[in-house]
Amino acid sequence: MKRLQKCCCASTRTGTLITAVMGIVLSIATIITVWVVERHTVAFKTYIFGEDFDKKLLAHDIPRIIITINLCFTILICSLLIIAVKKRRSWLMLPWVVLGIVLAIGLLISVLHTSISFYLFDAKDEEEKYNYNILATIILIGGIIYLCIYLYLWVVVFSHYLDVRDEEERGRYRKAPYKR
Q: I want to staple 164 with a disulfide (CB 3.0 to 4.6 A). Which of 39, 44, 90, 171 is the partner?
């Protein structure tokens, strides 16, 4: 894979720091949103258990707790990424790199599943069907755009990870004198 040398108009180091800070800010904003928004505005289905079990889980705030725990781990991993960039340690970047590609795959599956579910929704009349088709199209296009941006930022972080790893492998005394 060809490495990126720059992120937009900055170095991959700066792009990695911006990505980590954005991850922390978006995670905090999502945690706040999850706990502030009314419970009934978000549908929750497990697709494994019955509808009554889903309602019990929702009544005990289990989905909100799970999302909050996941976002707290995202904050932790983004914090590790910031420390890794500052200390130039590739092994501290590795959790973010691995989690990032897993999340990209999950995002793709989620966008496709949600948009297909809306396209296949059994509407009562033509206007409702039209509205669901519009919503499905917006979710599909917006999700793919978001996925492309996310993958670009992942490639920026991965490029910086490879640069730092190569620098660590060269060793302290094999580096150019101006990089010590």
A: 90
Inside any domain, residue 56: yes
Using alpha carbons, select from 86, 107, 83 the residue that is nearest to residue 96.
Answer: 83
Give the tens place of pLDDT for each residue, 107-164.
999 999 989 988 888 778 888 888 889 999 999 999 999 999 999 999 999 999 999 9
Residues present in the chain in total? 180
Number of structural domains (the chain) is 1
CA atoms of 97 and 101, how far apart (whole Å): 7
Q: From the centroid of its chain, how far is CA 138?
A: 19
Domain that holds residue 91: 6-174
The predicted model scores a pTM of 0.79
DSSP 2: P
The C-alpha atoms of residue 99 and residue 20 are separated, in whole angstroms, by 13
